[in-house]
Amino acid sequence: MKTESEFNQAFPVQVTLPVQWGDMDAFDHVNNTMYFRYFETARLAYFEHLDLLKTMQQDQIGPILAETACRFRRPLTYPDTIRVGASVIENHPFGFLMQYGIYSETQQAVCSDGSGRIVLLDYQSGQKVKPDKNMLKRIHRLQKSS
Q: Rounded to whole angstroms, what are the CA distances from 55 to 58, 94, 96?
């Protein structure tokens, strides 16, 4: 995705965040670890849209991050405002694959993209769990809205 329009179409859930001075490192750009925090914020916003965190409290089944990756396209610096997007791009037997993106308002460009493999876990037994039909429907509806 190269344009703001493509970014908006790719991500049904987006959060707007300020780049903080403390996000930067000694090399005067945002430290690589912060990108994963930004992704986490968007991922949790996506989960909130699915009511996944609420249902997790009821049935003790919830998401864990099994794998994650980031491609750094452009450095972010303070000051800036970013939009971090999240979407589900694949369903798997015990979870799904998410895609993330970070759009810089200052640069008017996508500065990074990434992914995260989510596995559903029964926190009482420690076993992987298949997503139920209601969750898959909610994901489908949310993805269709973008």
A: 5, 17, 17
